[in-house]
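seq as requested:
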Amino acid sequence: MNARWKAVLIVLMSLALMFGYLNRLAPRWQLHDFERLHIFLLNLVAGGTIILHYSERRVGRQDKGLSRRVTAYFVLGIGFTAAVYFDRYVVAMGLLVPLAVIVESVRLRLFPAFPVDFFRTSVPVWQKFHHASILCLSIALPFSGLVVLNDQYLKVVSLPALELDDFFLGFSFPLSLITMSVMFESMRREFGRLIAIVRHAIFWTVNLGVIVFFVFIVMSYRNGELAMALLLTAAVGVIFVLFVGHERHLQKDAFFTSGLVFLLFTGVTGVLWVVLSYLPPNPGLSWFVLQVHAFASLYGWNLSGLAVVSRYEEFPIRLHSRWVLGFHWITIVVLAPLGLYHRWLAVAATLCFALLLIAIFLSPGQTDTRASRDET
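C-alpha cells:
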C-alpha cells in the first residue's frame, strides 16, 4: 500500500477512536449516534479496505496503490457509514449491494465459490483463515442489510441484542481472521501430524465458536455466552503456544506476539463481563469492563494484525518494535479507557494513537527481506 493511502487510513482510524469518545464526553453534539462512525470507519471501511488490498496483492497485483475495485469499496463504505449515521437507511441498504458484489468478486479470484477448501486437510490453515475472512465480510454485508430492514421497518424479529449498533460490531471478525491467516503463514512449516491436526482444529474452533457465541449473544443466553467465552479464550491460549513454539523470530512476529497477548486480555475481560452479569448489578463496573474489552480488541489485537497485513511485503521496517509495542499497550490499555472519563485524556489518547499509527504505517520499510532480530 502506498504512502498516500496509508496516510488516509491513519486519519480514518484516528477519527474512529475520536468518535468513540464523543457520545460520552460531548452529549450536546449528539445529533446522531457517533458510535456508528466509531465502529464502521475502523472495521468496515479501514479494515475491509486493507483485507481486499492484501487479497489482491496475493493474486499477483503489482501496483501498491488501491485498485479501482478496492477504491470503489472504500468510497462506498464511507457513503454507507454516512448514510447510517444520518439515518438514511434506504440509501444504506442500497449501498450494501455493490459493497457485497465487490467483496465477492475479490473472493472468487482467490477461492472457490463454495468453501470446499475448509474441509480439505491438504489446504494450509492460513489459506483457510484467509478465505474465511473474505467470506465472513461478504456474508456480513447483506446480512446487515436484513438487520437494518428488520430493525427499522419490518420488525418481524424482536431480540434486544439484534439491533443496528450491536450487530455491526461483528464486522471486526473478518479482521481477526485475516490476522490469523498471516500469523499462521508466518510460522515455521516444519511440524508433526499432531500439530497439523491441532492447527485445523483451531480453525474450526475459532470460526464455529464465534458464530455460536454470536447466536448466544443475540438470544441473551448467558450460560452459553460464558461457555463460549471460556472456549474461545482457551483456543487463543493454544494459538499462543503454537505461535511461540513455531515463530521464526522475524520483526513482524513481535507484532503478532503482542497482538495475541491483547487477544488473551480481550478473552479474559470478555469472560469477566459475562461473569459480572451473574452478580448483583453494578452497571458502572460492567460498562467499564466492556469498554476495556472493546479497546483491547478493536485497537489492540486488530491493529496489531492490520499493521502487519498492510505492510506484509515491507518487513522488516525501520522502527524499534519494543518501544512501539510498549507505547501501543500504554495507549490502549491505560490511556484510552481513562479518556472515557475526561475529555483531555481522550484528546491525549487520540493523539497518541495517531502517533502510533504514523510510526507503524509510515516508518520506512527495508529493501531486503532477510530475517532480522536487531530491531525487535
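Confidence is low (pLDDT under 50) at residues 367-376.
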